[in-house]
Design a protein that fits this description.
- There is one protein chain.
- The protein has about 230 residues and is an alpha+beta fold.
- The protein folds into 2 domains: about 100 residues, no CATH class; about 120 residues, no CATH class.
- Helix content is about 25%, strand content about 25%.
- A hairpin with an 8-residue loop joins strand 6 and strand 7.
- Helix 4 crosses helix 5.
- The longest helix has 18 residues.
- The chain starts with 10 loop residues before the first strand and ends with a helix.
Length: about 230
């Protein structure tokens, strides 16, 4: 019997809608997220205006065993963005629902922030959540005891943690004590100089798995401002 706290699904999936101004050989009719929802997850007014000019749809679905899903979803996203570039179109990620404003060559698993959005709905209660890690077969992350006034530093720690989670899953179970370095954060935020960032500064975390809500509950053991940036 496995002693891993976090269950590993057999497979994962992700879906993208290629939206184009002109019809392609094949067209799908999947109901699209409304503009309010797309805006909530970070889509800009400019991208939404352009999306209105792209009424034709082609659904691209990626499903793969969890062990190879990271590479599979990266390749699927690149393929979708390549097609969009060829047909003057746009790509809408369906979960979390948002317009992807990326060039194909910018797609990177190391840049973890590309793969999730942050949910601030319960920030006043000290909770910060991710939405998007489930496509890798991971539970979403909830960080507890977040100070709303300084949440940007916690956002950065989440980027570093997500970088590690994506790189190490499913080989390593994430539950237990963990350390996120300043270099992890640089990679997670997409810093071009990440590989040169010193690893000496770090913050300790404690990660627990809660099966009911199927989430990773993360407690920061230090003040990020003092541990990383002082």
């Amino acid at each position: 019997m496995s002693t891993r706290p976090v269950p590993v699904p057999e497979s994962c999936s992700a879906s993208y809608a290629l939206m184009t101004p002109d019809a392609l050989d094949h067209e799908d009719q999947l109901p699209m997220p409304n503009e309010a929802l797309l805006r909530r997850y970070g889509s800009t007014d400019a991208s939404l205006a352009r999306l209105r000019e792209c009424p034709h749809q082609l659904l691209l679905h990626c499903q793969a065993p969890t062990e190879v899903m990271a590479d599979a979803v990266r390749d699927c996203r690149i393929h979708a963005l390549d097609l969009a570039a060829q047909h003057d179109g746009m790509v809408v990620e369906l979960l979390p629902p948002r317009v992807l404003e990326l060039r194909p060559e910018e797609v990177s698993l190391a840049h973890a922030q590309q793969w999730y959005v942050l949910d601030y709905d319960d920030l006043e209660e000290g909770l910060l959540r991710t939405d998007g890690l489930e496509q890798f077969g991971l539970p979403e992350v909830t960080v507890a005891d977040v100070d709303p006034a300084t949440h940007a530093m916690t956002d950065a720690v989440v980027a570093g943690l997500a970088h590690r989670l994506i790189a190490e899953w499913p080989s390593n179970d994430p539950v237990g004590p963990a350390t996120v370095t300043l270099r992890d954060i640089a990679f997670g935020l997409g810093d071009a100089e990440a590989s040169k960032t010193p690893e000496g500064r770090a913050i300790d975390l404690l990660i627990d798995y809660e099966p009911g809500p199927h989430r990773l509950l993360v407690q920061l053991m230090d003040d990020p401002a003092e541990a990383l940036f002082s």
